[in-house]
From TrEMBL:
Belongs to the Casparian strip membrane proteins (CASP) family. Its main location: membrane. The lineage of its organism: Eukaryota, Viridiplantae, Streptophyta, Embryophyta, Tracheophyta. The keyword Membrane applies. This is CASP-like protein. It is found in: Cell membrane. The chain crosses the membrane at residues 53-71, 91-112, 175-202. InterPro entries: CASP/CASPL (IPR006459), CASP_dom (IPR006702). Keywords: Cell membrane, Membrane, Transmembrane, Transmembrane helix. One of its GO terms (cellular component) is plasma membrane. It is a multi-pass membrane protein. Residues 1-34 are annotated as: Disordered. It holds the Pfam family CASP_dom.
Length: 208
């Protein structure tokens, strides 16, 4: 009922005022699905980075072993050929050594990213740095091993491999290991390229 004072003043009671003592409980929304989605994304990103780390490790091992095999092709006899007597074999050694050092650095960057959930460099720089160097060094390693293969074939048709067969065999092993290193560096290049595409489309190095 309206009070006499309110009737005299011509006021109408507000329905909101009557309901002011009744408070509607507000429920705080929870988003468990969003938290689950974020957790799944982190796990997928870590598995993806672990796969890249595995390819980096394989490229490092093969390239380093190729360099060691090429260096140790030196014959005991001074009249026998040495790896530094051939430009193609020097190219093979240099390319594999560069790829081994680069792969070692990328392994450190991958471990950093897996353990801290962030890139070693700023994200935009990191994705382009990885992709660009993967491309350049993959072509460098392919060119070097191709040149080494052609030189090894040439030596097979000469008296060099007849007199010192161990030199040619060890050179062939070094080149084969270099091609294996190129293969895993190529796999790494595909994954780093995927990260670049995701960064261009989504602004993030991962698609989720």
């Amino acid at each position: 009922m309206r009070s006499p004072q309110a009737l005299r003043n011509g006021e109408n009671p507000s329905p909101h005022r009557r309901n002011s003592n009744f408070s509607t409980p507000s429920a705080t929304p929870h988003h468990p699905a969003s938290h689950f989605h974020s957790t799944v994304t982190v796990h997928k990103l870590r598995r993806f980075n672990s796969l890249i780390l595995l390819f980096r490790l394989a490229a490092f091992c093969f390239s380093l072993t190729s360099s060691v095999f090429m260096i140790t092709t030196n014959s005991r006899s001074s009249s026998s050929p040495h790896w530094y007597d051939f430009d193609a074999f020097r190219f093979v050694l240099a390319a594999n050594a560069i790829v081994a050092l680069y792969s070692l650095f990328e392994m450190v960057a991958s471990v950093w990213e897996i353990s801290r959930d962030t890139t070693l460099f700023p994200e935009s720089l990191q994705v382009w740095f990885d992709f660009g160097h993967d491309q350049v060094l993959a072509y460098l390693l392919l060119s070097a091993n191709s040149a080494g293969t052609e030189m090894a074939r040439t030596l097979r048709n000469t008296a060099t491999c007849t007199a010192t067969n161990a030199f040619c065999v060890q050179s062939d092993i070094s080149i084969a290991l270099g091609f294996a290193g190129f293969l895993f560096l190529g796999f790494s290049s595909l994954l780093s390229g995927f990260r670049v595409v995701c960064f261009i489309i989504n602004g993030s190095r991962f698609h989720l």
